[in-house]
Specification:
The structure holds two protein chains of two kinds. Chain A is mainly alpha-helical. Chain A is built from 13 helices and two strands; from the N terminus they run H-H-H-H-H-H-H-H-E-E-H-H-H-H-H. In chain A, helix 9 (about 205-220) crosses helix 11 and helix 10 (about 225-235) packs antiparallel against helix 11. Chain B has helices spanning about 1-10, 10-40, 50-55, 60-70, 85, 90-110, 115-135. Classes of the chains: A mainly alpha, B mainly alpha. The interface between A and B is large, with 70 and 70 residues.
């Protein structure tokens, strides 16, 4: 009974939170205040709103199994008064802080594979620098380019999350030459069965090439790239799902670091908005982990896919200046 | 059993990496909270007035830096005595942790004579240091 009640309650809480995130009231409030900046609100007004928003976002992100950055950038970029340059800078710091917080546990339990992460991280982090510089250049030409491209990317991510089917332990019959040369393989203990599961990669070259694009997109839009890392590791390279998810989270701490430095050096990180975002999302993630056993992740996941579609549309609407969504 | 355990056991440097991330990450968060409270409460005067920040965060970064007379690159270090730039200590700590951790891993792979991974670690340190240096992203305004 308690579980049932807990499940209902937490699902309702999250449904309410998702609704709140995209409700016209929240949008109106954000735009009202944006219209009159520095209009007599106490200085803590915007940081507090952002903190509460990101706290809710952190809960939802954990329950939906997505990174905070992928929700943060389109939603805050679409509905808050901040320029997209600062939203991307803060988004990278948010994703970086989340990845750093998760990293120690994943490394200690040996779920994040260094042999898999290190070669991939080198490619992705170098390319995320290119992406960050490209994104800042495009934004300098016209922020609408970045806003519109971000909207299209977010909608593509929503489609990818909807369609992708994971495989718990993919069958890899023969390791390819690159995977073998780099020794990209390992073993982990399945906590449910107590069994030691050994794994190795195939199609490693294809995977490495895809990380060029993943790095560029992560840097350009300030998104964490877990949504792309996991399918590439799991479906293309044949890495077990547990290792894929853990390595992806760890990988973000490296990829986002390089892009975050570019944004910081360019002056795109404003502490007034970045710090409440980071703290809010981290605290929300901690609460989300507590709720994870009670909530219905599938339901939340579908809602988040809906939110991503909406946020993508809003971003495109804002980028093209159509004004259809307010 | 011993073989099974050794198969899934992380190497020592991986555990050190985890510890550095753990303590460094929490220290960064702690510093951010403290410096932010000092900043928001006005205990330490900021370089850019908070109202001016709010009035200009809707503009692009070029315009924002110009209007608020904010520094770029590593010039913020000279403003550490100001409330707003004190916040960068925590932020930068988060961004510098991975570089420190990679140096630890580099030592581990050299010890194990795994040269391919030692070179990858070194290359990553160079990439991250280049990004952090400000040589790539701080021009143009």
């Amino acid at each position: 009974m308690k579980n049932f009640f807990g499940s209902k309650c937490s699902t309702a809480l999250c449904a309410g939170a998702v609704w709140l995130l995209c409700s016209p009231v929240a949008v109106f409030a954000a735009q009202e205040a944006a219209a009159a900046p520095g209009d007599g609100h106490p200085v803590w007004f915007w940081p507090l709103i952002l903190f509460v928003f990101c706290f809710i976002l952190g809960i939802i992100a954990v329950l939906a199994g997505v990174g905070g950055g992928v929700l943060y950038v389109p939603l805050v970029g679409g509905f808050f008064p901040f320029h997209i340059d600062f939203v991307r800078g803060a988004g990278l710091m948010v994703a970086l802080a989340g990845a750093l917080a998760a990293g120690p546990g994943l490394l200690r339990r040996n779920l994040a594979s260094l042999r898999l992460a290190l070669p991939v991280a080198l490619i992705a982090s170098a390319c995320s620098i290119v992406g960050a510089m490209l994104g800042l250049y495009l934004s300098k030409l016209d922020p609408a380019y970045v806003q519109t491209a971000l909207g299209a990317t977010i909608m593509a991510i929503a489609v990818l999350i909807t369609l992708s089917k994971n495989s718990a332990v993919p069958v890899v019959t023969k390791q390819d030459a690159i995977g073998l040369a780099l020794g990209i393989q390992g073993a982990y203990k399945d906590e449910a069965t107590g069994e030691i599961i050994e794994w190795k990669t195939h199609r490693t070259l294809g995977g490495l090439i895809l990380f060029i694009f993943i790095g560029i997109i992560a840097g350009m839009f300030g998104l964490g790239a877990g949504w792309a890392n996991v399918p590439v590791f799991n479906l293309l390279m044949g890495v077990p799902l547990k290792i894929s998810v853990a390595t992806s989270k760890f990988l973000l701490s490296i990829t986002d670091t390089s892009a975050a430095w570019i944004y910081m050096n360019k002056g795109c990180v404003i502490p007034l908005m970045a710090i409440p975002s980071i703290i809010g999302l981290m605290l929300g993630s901690l609460v989300g982990v507590k709720l994870l056993s009670k909530a219905k992740p599938k339901f939340i996941r579908y809602m988040v896919i809906g939110v991503l579609f909406f946020a993508g549309l809003k971003s495109i609407d804002k980028g093209l200046g159509l004004g259809l969504l307010g | 059993m011993t073989t099974e355990k050794s198969k899934i056991a992380p190497m020592q440097e991986q555990l050190t990496y985890a510890n550095v991330l753990l303590w460094g990450g929490w220290l960064g968060i702690f510093l951010m909270i403290v410096s932010y409270l000092l900043y928001l409460s006005g205990v330490i005067t900021p370089h850019v007035d908070i109202l001016l920040v709010i009035q200009n965060w809707g503009h692009g970064v070029q315009e924002y830096l110009h209007v608020t007379d904010s520094p770029h690159g590593w010039a913020w270090v000279a403003l550490l005595h100001r409330g707003d730039y004190l916040n960068f200590v925590g932020l930068v700590l988060l961004a510098v942790l991975t570089i420190i951790c990679y140096l630890i891993l580099f030592r581990g792979y050299v010890r194990k004579k795994e040269w391919a991974y030692a070179i990858i670690c070194l290359a990553e340190v160079l990439v991250l240091s280049l990004a952090a240096s400000g040589l790539l992203g701080s021009g143009g305004h």
